[in-house]
Design a protein that fits this description.
Layout: E1 8-13, E2 19-20, E3 35-44, E4 50-59, E5 67-73, E6 77-84, E7 88-95, E8 108-111, E9 119-128, E10 133-141, E11 149-155, E12 159-166, E13 170-177, E14 190-193, E15 201-210, E16 215-223, E17 228-233, E18 237-243, E19 252-253, E20 261-262, E21 267-270
Length: 273
């Protein structure tokens, strides 16, 4: 700076020929050898005045290539991700004694059906742009982890929205609310109307199977709607009713501190008695 739109700029690297260049001027260090380098910039303004600036810089010796790899099963594939400390040039892998697979990138995804019984040996090879190489060896077991199901819900004012997280790919999902019938073939997330909840605590049991035949259940305790009662009094009758209704509930009534006896809602008392 300052910039002059009428100026011309020429650059020379390490005493080489001057060639037209633009500012800012970028040099990829990967194209240079390790050690000292010199960049000469010739700047001629619109009046024909030329200035030269010489800049020296050093390309450091790169660190040896290292790969930090993690792996996990997503239920259908074994997925490997690696973080290198240098920019990679090539990546390949070999599973057991099979042929090497070249030209891959991260993450590497291997179908679980390609794994042999027992332990499998996965060798990952990589080179960086400096010519350094690294090899990482992982041991993979063909047996999937036992299915683990973690479920939670939110109340949106009219429904419970239930969702679950699992460590393996799910095959089937079903649920049962309290002592009701099992609801099969549901998809996550699923919803349950609040009107289906009983008063007090409700028990929601979610059952699932994964693609390997494993199974798991998760149980959620849900607070139901509070019981709300109202009475209508006429000249002859006292009518009491409560909601929400629960067909599995039992009701007892006591008048003026008398014994509690089974009764049904709505409950009617004749005032003439």
């Amino acid at each position: 700076s300052p910039k002059d739109p009428t100026a011309s700029t020429k650059c020379s690297l390490d005493g080489g020929p001057q060639t037209a260049c633009t500012l800012p001027y970028n040099i990829s260090l990967t194209s240079l050898t390790v050690g000292e380098h010199t960049l000469t910039i010739s700047y001629t303004d619109g009046n024909g005045t030329t200035q030269r600036v010489v800049i020296s810089f050093t390309v450091p010796v790169p660190a040896p290539l290292e790969l930090d790899c993690t792996s996990k099963s997503n239920g259908t594939h074994f997925v490997v991700s690696c973080q290198p400390n240098n920019q990679l040039q090539t990546v390949s892998y070999q599973l057991n004694s099979a042929a090497a697979v070249n030209g891959v990138g991260f993450p590497i995804s291997i179908p679980l059906i390609e794994l042999s019984d027992g332990n499998n040996l996965l060798v990952i090879s990589a080179t960086d742009i400096y010519g350094s190489s690294a090899i990482v060896t992982l041991t993979i077991h063909d047996s999937p982890d036992p299915l683990v199901l973690s479920c939670s819900y939110i109340n949106n004012g009219s429904h419970l929205i239930v969702n679950c997280q699992s460590n393996n790919q799910l095959q089937t999902v079903s649920y049962r609310l309290n002592s009701g019938a099992v609801v099969n073939g549901v998809e996550l997330p699923f919803s349950i109307p609040l009107s289906e909840l009983s008063t007090g605590k409700n028990k929601l049991v979610i059952s699932a199977t994964d693609v390997y035949g494993g199974s798991a259940t998760a149980t959620i305790s849900i607070q139901g709607r509070p019981l709300s009662c109202s009475a209508i009094v006429s000249s002859d009758d006292f009518l009491l009713d409560c909601s929400p209704k629960d067909p599995t509930a039992s009701t007892k009534c006591s008048l003026d501190g008398g014994p509690q006896t089974a009764c049904t809602l709505p409950y009617n008392i004749s005032l003439t008695s």
